[in-house]
Structures are given as structure tokens and as C-alpha cells.
Write a structure and sequence with these properties.
Elements lengths: L2 E11 L3 E20 L2 E8 L12 H12 L6 E8 L9 H16 L6 H12 L5 H6 L2 E6 L4 E6 L6 E7 L5 H6 L7 H20 L5 H4 L6 H4 L6 H10 L4 E4 L6 E5 L4 H15 L3 E6 L3
Parallel strand pairs: 3-4
Antiparallel strand pairs: 1-2, 2-4, 2-5, 5-6, 7-9, 7-10, 8-9
Bound molecules: L-homoserine (HSE).
Amino acid sequence: DMVQVRIPASSANLGPGFDCIGVALNLYTEVSMGFIEKGLIIEVSGEDYKEIETTENNLVYKAAKIIFEKTETQYKGLKIEIKNGIPIGSGLGSSAAAIIGGMLAANELAGGILTHKEILNLAASMEGHADNVGPALNGGLNVTVFDGVNTYYVKKELENDLTFIAFTPKKVLKTEIARNILPPKIDFKDAVFNTGRSSLLTAALFSGRYDLLKIASQDMLHQKYRSKLIPEMYACFEKSLEAGAYSAFLSGAGPTIMAICPEDKADKVVESVGSVYTYMGIDYRVYKLHCE
Ligand code: HSE
């Protein structure tokens, strides 16, 4: 028998909260998994399915394998079906969804031995941080710290009064490349800048002070470096704010640009930011999302 799980997309960083703040969004990857007589069968469909490995390098499979090893689960063969709804390599947490999907499905097949907390820690170890795997597993807004062993987090459900608009160029940007472009050292004043913004961002989102999001989403740690890989970034930020968004930032490692806005500004933001991509001749997709 196949077990089935559905995992949401997620947007990490939200500007200054590098590797620690993330939010689950209502785009999903569905994973079905079951034991078979022999071999490994991986079937993929949906968004960007051609980008998804169907070998032992498949991320859902790799994550499942960790669970089967941990729980000492014996099996002869494995079948995995992935119905993907999250663009790949775009900064919307497709890897985190694959990891959590693989781990949850495998744990269910193993008899539910591992706890929620153990799964979160194993997933965070795979990614190196918990800002996508946290929301992918828990839903909602998550403020997370992964110390290399344990994950500490607070979850907050966001009201549906925030619309998250994702602008996703039709190109894959490997997280590895977007992390390697970051400098090994930063200025003390940039660190101070981000500590303040990141703290204010958390406080603003937890208390509904959306008027503060514009300042609270500013960042000096990663976005300016990544803009070299995403030349449309600053123009998109500007157009978002001009059209009435509360804030705009790079979603995860990019290249997706995320704008947070009140529902009644959404159409204007879509049009205004869209003009940047059109002007620059970049193919893109738009997703109008809410916190999951
Ligand atoms: N916080 C991570 C980053 C998210 O910005 O690189 C992508 O894994």
C-alpha cells in the first residue's frame, strides 16, 4: 500500500532573516510511497517535472533512505510518486518539500517510529538550516535556529490578510551557487543593520504591524550580493513598493522575488512588477499565495 503526504512550498529569509525566518505557502508537492518486490521506481509529474531526478539522486528518495536507515527498516524495493506543484530551484522551498515529503512518507511506512522533532532535526541536517524545512513541516511562519544538532523554533499562523506574490523567472538557480556568491566576512555595521531589521521583522509579523514591514524587510547580508545573479531584483523591489506592497524581498536564495501586500493591492503589484520582467525580456510565472 502507498502512503501519501502533501507538503507546502516555503519562502525563506523574508529579507534580513537569513537562514532563520521562513513561511509556508499554499503551493504543494505530493509524495506517494510504498514498498514493492524489487528495485527503485520513481515517477514524477507536475511543475518542472523534467528537472526532477528519477534515480538514486532523487531528493525524496535520499531523505526516505535516511529514515529507513535510522529506523532500521528492511525492504526489498521502493516506489515513489511525486506530483510536484512547486517550481524547482526557484527559492520556493522545493528541496525542503521533497526532503520533508520523503521523510514523512518513509516514517509512516516504517510504522511512525520517529517523532516530529527527530524528523525536523534530520531534515535541517540535510539542508544545513531550518528556514525552509521548518515551515514545510510545521506550516505557518517559523522563526528557527538550527545549531547543527537541534532545531529551536516558534511557529505563528499568519492571518489571511497578507497576500504573498511570487514572481518566478523560468530559470533554475542552484542554491549552492547563490550561497557561494556570499562573502566570507561582512562589515560589523551590516551585521548590526540585519540584527535590527530581523528582530523588527519578527516583532512586526507576530503583532500584525504590517506598516513596519517595509523597513523590517531591508537586508545587508545576502541580497546585494545575489543581485549579481538576479539583475532584475532591485527594479522588482521598487515596483512592488510603488504599487502598494508592504515589502518585497528575494525568496530564499532566489531567483523568485516575493512581494507581501494587502489583497486589494495584489493586481496592481502583479502588473507593476510584471512590467520589469517584460521590459527585461525575462519569462516568468506569478503565484498569488497565502500563508499555509
Ligand atoms: N536561507 C537559505 C539561503 C535559503 O538564503 O541560502 C535557501 O536554502
